[in-house]
Amino acid sequence: xxxxxxxxxxxxxxxxxxxxxxxxxxxxxxxxxxxxxxxxxxxxxxxxxxxxxxxxxxxxxxxxxxxxxxxxxxxxxxxxxxxxxxxxxxxxxxxxxxxxxxxxxxxxxxxxxxxxxxxxxxxxxxxxxxxxxxxxxxxxxxxxxxxxxxxxxxxxxxxxxxxxxxxxxxxxxxxxxxxxxxxxxxxxxxxxxxxxxxxxxxxxxxxxxxxxxxxxxxxxxxxxxxxxxxxxxxxxxxxxxxxxxxxxxxxxxxxxxxxxxxxxxxxxxxxxxxxxxxxxxxxxxxxxxxxxxxxxxxxxxxxxxxxxxxxxxxxxxxxxxxxxxxxxxxxxxxxxxxxxxxxxxxxxxxxxxxxxxxxxxxxxxxxxxxxxxxxxxxxxxxxxxxxxxxxxxxxx
Length: 396
What we know:
Elements: H1 14-30, H2 39-52, H3 74-87, H4 89-108, H5 111-123, E1 128-131, E2 147-151, E3 154-165, E4 172-178, E5 188-194, E6 200-205, E7 214-225, E8 229-230, H6 236-272, E9 274-275, E10 278-279, H7 284-312, H8 318-343, H9 353-364, H10 371-395
Parallel strand pairs: 1-4
Antiparallel strand pairs: 2-3, 3-7, 4-5, 5-8, 6-7, 9-10
Helix pairs in contact: 1-3, 2-4, 3-4, 3-6, 4-5, 4-6, 6-7, 6-8, 6-9, 7-8, 8-9, 8-10
């Protein structure tokens, strides 16, 4: 961990800095940046090792269920994701999906559901997945078509989910389906579906530029007990959004980790690459690039850890998290692109750290809300606040 000055920012408590430094030391001896040939096996191995080392405890809320704290510490999961991403994108993915995949259970699950699933997630003994997106319902969750009909004491699921991370290797999926209590977003419920449930199949494995387990799922008369529903019927949209709110800021932190690693690589390259009797770092154009990269990183970090701190204070962070995710992912893309440019032809050689980072960062600008969606969230929140203030002034 080359630059640790930010750990002294007032957003953090001493325990946060200790956590980040301890994880960095562990990651230095246990992780590598390169993509693995067998991504499924690598992901399973990473979940097991992260669990055995105790890091996954931070992804789960509730000490009684294997978690590190009574509630998820947003600053802790952000620092963990940043640190893991700096070392290995797949390790960050493995950690994040354990949290996202089990988050709905931690927030809204019954005592029985929490006891059955969360301790195994925290120990790295069960792999979790979050199944929300569909072929025609990504950013527009209200367009969901996957259906769940109640028949006696069971629900029957029919439909598809796609872009499901951990699809094909998960032990259970938190699935969102239209249950019919009302139209639109108010008629969606959340369910836990074990991977071996009859009627659930992996319809397609999806290959992407930054390899990780990803799949399209099909539900064909898939029967689950009514007790598998998470929370109340028709509350699935609320469950999904609350879960995403916890982890959206941590996506920004992962982008920070990628960007910091890119800056490290760029600094090493600039200081060691000899050109025209000088090093690359001697040229003003290189210095300007490095200055811009460092500034982009700090700007993103300030927004990210402000949002994390505010959430840990119990504040509403919809706008702050959207600003953090938007800025951190877009800035990281720019930082990594600049780093790759400094490597010249070597930068596009498969397996080079900057080439790997270039592929890793691209997806972060899309998943858990694309950059354009974050802009809509920010603008709508601003306009809603403005309208409320204007109405208050008119009534005064």
